[in-house]
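INSTRUCTION: Work out how this chain folds

Fields: amino acid sequence; protein backbone structure tokens

Chain under study, with its fold:
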Amino acid sequence: MKQKKFKLHFFLPVIFITSLPYFAGCSSTHSKEHIDTIKTDLNSLHKDVDKVLGLDKPSSLIEE
């Protein structure tokens, strides 16, 4: 009986924590949108660094 309680108290929170991102709205489609946004931001950051170093044109993040 004690072992069953341990399993219940151990595995139930683990299952809850691992499923929390899905229930919070981070399904595969939503995650893809986040990844696309991060890629765009990193690309713009790269262009900004190149501009500071004098290697490229400014990115769209720079307001003129």
Notes: The mean pLDDT is 75. The chain has one domain: 2-52. The longest helix spans residues 28-52. The chain is about 75% helix and 0% strand.
